[in-house]
Amino acid sequence: MTIYQAGTTGQGGGLLAAPLPELPDGRGTNGDIIPIAAISVGAALTLLLDTTVPVNQRNNDQVTLDVTRIAPPPIPTPTDYTRLTRLTLPDMGQRPVKFPFPVPTQFLGEDATLAGPTTLWVRCVYFERGFNSLTSDFVPFLIDRTAPWQAKPVQTGANPGQTPGAKTIPPATFPNAPGDLDDIWANLPGSSMGLRVVIDTTYPNAQPTDRVRLYVANQRSNPPQVSPFYDDVMPSNGEVVVPTAELRKITSGRAFIWFIITDDAGNESAWGVYFKNTRFLPLPNLGPLDVPANTDGLIDLKDARAGVTVEVNRPVDALNNDEVSVKWGGQPAQDLPFGTLTKLTFIIPWADLSKEYFDNQTGTDYELDVVVTADLMRANVSVSDVNTTVNTDFSTNPPYIVDPLIPPPEFNPEFKPLIVRGQAPVIDNELGPHDANRTATAHIDVSPVSGGTFLDPEPGDLLTLMYLGDRGEVVVSSTPLDASNINTVIPVDLPYSVVGPGGLGVKQVWWIYENPGRNNTQAAVKTPVTVNTVVITLDPPEFVRPPADGTEDPFIICDSLTGTEHVARFRIPPNTHFVDGMPITFSWRGFHTEDYATPAPVDTEFTETRNITVAELTAGMIFDVGPYDPVIRNLPVPPPLTPDPSDFYAGYVKVWYSTPTVPTSGVTEMTVYLLNADYLYCESEPGWDPAP
Q: Where are the strands (E) in 26-69, listed by range?
């Protein structure tokens, strides 16, 4: 006979160690609870043995299990356990890492005595090549076939301790809702949290790891057709709270509440099925939120300066004591009651706007999406909610840094107002008639009000000139900024093509610091500029003929002169330009030649200035040119002693007037002829006064 001994010299092996039995899918903290699915009634339990544990593995190795339902002594004897039939392991080339070994069903019942599971003790016995044995330690496994609120398994029949005991419906109560659920109940102090469902946890062997799966719906179904409302470990006090908002979703008039309790082994209790009648008023549904500042797709600094408005329209079925809670991103909510209003208006202050932006914006993506949420609250419970996403950008580039607490000013306090200058004579920020159809200049000092200098501009920075006239804001032009012109006075053309269409009166001109790559701009304070560039047309003076004068224009003859003083009378017609008391200057200038190239003697010039009266504003002004001699008589060139019949001895005159702002009216040109057929002047005729 050949004797083999593990670990002897020359066998090339080591000490043989028996593997501990392993429980697949063991439950509980120690993985020692047998899943109920693994030990159905009448079935064996499969344990696994790790074939890699023994170092000295051979073909024809055998294994078995020693099994007992009584705790074995420290040194067990064959009477303390039952040894199962050996099984031969596959040869080395085909041997699995985990070898399954069945425990017969007769060992798998649960005892009726004592609350809790029954322990099954198992150890592995390993036979090298089927010869000598080596045993592992005993390992305890727990047999638990009893669910919460279930009797112990039946101890008689073919499989004692395996046939499930009777299940009792798990008790549950509703401590804060003895009656039906309605709006009166929801407003009670004890109902603010919702409906308290308290499950009785006094069943035997209750464990903190037991789980409960609870459903709330219009109608109970099995299997459930809705997702669990609660699916977690059993609360220590057995209480699950169903919020009122969840109960208000019930439309059938009855809220079914049903649940099942499961232990670590997978045993499931009977279903606990309950219901509460509901009579809640119809719930309102909030419509879309309106954020007017986001209409153009961006809320920037100019939109946020006075806060951003969020508007919530009153929905159908809203009650006067319903409230709306509005949140701007993660900022604190604002709450307002509807009362009798048809719309609620919330103003999100700059402090909240800036905090949400600066807490969340990163990098060079300066635009930040913000979710604005509104909840309609009834009895402190949200019964409807709606949200919208808005786009914000509160970033700036130098020379201004936003203060997160103080709203950004409309104008950068460090920017100097510009100065507009026209043509000479120049009056700062005034454009007169002499500036009509001429280009003015805006002088922009791009240096800080407080002194010092601005930092060099960033690439793409621009100085943009703006004009606000009767046709709205006009972008005049943009000047690139760089290190060479920052902190200097930059002249920028203000063309009449912008000023003229903008109308007369006080207009606004200002400059903006901007960059096409950024949404926010910075503006200087607006400079008021008085525009009076209108070209006023004054009608020419009208010659007033005596009734007896039948001569037609442009002639002035003897009979054309008025009165005994024989003056040339002219009328200045009314004009909307005239105002009471305005000085009007009338002028008469004579010439000897028809081409108005040769002036008449100085004594023929006539000028008179006087203030227009209220009556003359509508009647017109009368000016008499005289005296006859020399102002009128000396206009023509006197005929020689022997006149030339082919010559026309006439004088020529230009007549006009002016106002303080209009240098000249239209000019009246007339021909003065004072000789008769004998080449004698007017005074030679009988009756002329003075007499010849």
A: 45-50, 62-68
